[in-house]
Amino acid sequence: MTDDQQSQTNGGGALSDEQQSSIAALAAENTYVKQSKWKTFRELPAADKWPFFVQHFLVGTIAVVVAIAFIVSLAVTWLTRPPQTELSVAGIGMGEYSAQLDELKSGFVKAEKIDDDRLVDIDGSFTLAVQGGSGTGSSNGSTNSYTDDSSKLMTMVSAGDVNMIIADKATFAELVHRGLIGKVSDVEKGDAALGKLADAGALVDKKGEPIAGASSSDDAAEAGKAYGLALSKSATWSGAGVAGVKGLPDDAVIGFSNVVDATHASRARDFVTYLRFE
User: Fold this and answer.
1) Cα–Cα distance for residue pair 207/172, rounded to 1 Å
2) CATH no. for 87-275
3) Domains in the chain: boundaries
């Protein structure tokens, strides 16, 4: 029997040294299997760290970073958001009087000793397409549906974000017709308050016209029909005295809109007092 035949007879399955080493390596205990992934990561050679990190830590790390960023964003938004206004006045077609309205606001904030002027907002940039009125802010009272803020104003009033509205007579009448202006007596409670405004001749009807017979504080019934106040009777609006603002239109009317709570009602009454109807 030859040597080859003898080898085949003995099984011919003898393993080489290389094969035996490979089997031993596979059978050896994995030193990393019983320890944490973090410890394994720290003990790995530098070349193996990044692949291991991608496989075991990358997704979790991204999730943590996103969560932290979201929480920080919420915190910043909460800490930096402006305070809720206590009085918001919308001026219709009064964009050209922005400087005077800013002066009016500043004077009111100072007079009432309001710490944060963001609690009061007077914005004259609203426009309304009303035939015969200056609600568009144009000198000829022409209408322009592309610059009409009707939907915006309706939304803000409904949300309580507009508490008082200033407009010319024609626009004021349209605002009353749309249900955006309420009665003066809804906010100025009591005969005394209405009587003082009546004595000043400030009360006007749905069309912005003076109420007949409302010049006497005794005529409470007529005064109760008032929907607005003629700003021509306001000393502050007309530029009289130290607090007076010069250059505002004398045909404007102011009315109460959605005065949502006691705080807004109080601020609105304070503003009427500041206007000095006399």
Assistant:
1) 7
2) 3.40.190
3) 15-79, 87-275
Nearest-angstrom CA–CA distance, 168 and 249: 9
The SS3 call for residue 214 is: coil
Q: 219: part of which helix (H) or strand (E)?
A: none
Q: Give the number of other Cβ atoms within 10 Å of residue 24's Cβ.
A: 9
The overall average pLDDT reported for the chain is 83
Burial of 240 (0-12, 13-18, 19+ CB in 10 A): middle
257-266: pLDDT as tens digits? 999 899 999 9
203-204/228-230 β-pairing: antiparallel
- Joined together, the tokens standing for residue 68 give 């932290």
Tokens of 83: 């305070």
Q: State whether the Cα torsion 165-167-169-175 is positive or negative.
A: negative
Using the structure block, give the residue that is written with the tokens 């915190």. Answer: 75
27-79 pLDDT per residue, tens: 555 555 566 777 777 777 888 778 888 888 888 889 989 999 998 888 877 77
Sign of the dihedral defined by the CA atoms of residues 267, 270, 274, 278, in that order: positive
